[in-house]
Amino acid sequence: MNMKKKRIVSVESVGEREVFDISTTENVYITDNGLINHNSGIVYGSSVIMNLAKAQLKESTEVVGQRVIAKAQKNRFCKPTPCEFEIRFDTSLNPYKGLQDYVTWDSCGVGRGKFIDEKEYSKLTAAAQSACRLCAANGQYFMPNNGRNICKEDGSVYPIDDFFTPKIFTQDVLERLDKVISPLFTYGSNETTGLAELDHEVDESEEAQNELKAEMDRLYDDFPLDEN
Question: Against a cut of 0.85, is the pTM above it?
Fold first, then answer.
């Protein structure tokens, strides 16, 4: 069936009138007074729907809070990507939790590792040397590892306990991270987060396409459009 677009030629105010918010809990059609309202339930009208799961956050054997995993079922504002955060009983939410997935020496001048001098650098294998970065502030090389120190490009070194603090995440670091993170979550970009893949796929089989076509034909028969 051919559908035609119609241009709105004018909009006039009719004053204040009593209206009704029609919503449903299921995927249905509502027809009244020449209007069709489709998918009007809260699931369809909401801009963001989050599924939350929680687990105990422990330090040694003591429960100190909740660990929350949030998975977007629907998000109209950015690419739906799972994330994890902590709610502690003794403090407020830490705004830096989660940023560790994007922190690298190349992205913001911060890295977990240590500084080594030229002599130590020369003893490394070619592969290990390629992972190192020269720090202009102290003339040494930053070598990434899983140690207990956090190094910054200004030559400073912090214990790993200071990682999720303003000592590491200064305004400059946050602004540089924003340039890296924003494209990963913005619709229309080709970047991917690399954290998780969407767990739904479009069924493009011939059988699924035929079922969809039959359903659309039925809807056109039930609700014919005015072609005049």
Answer: no
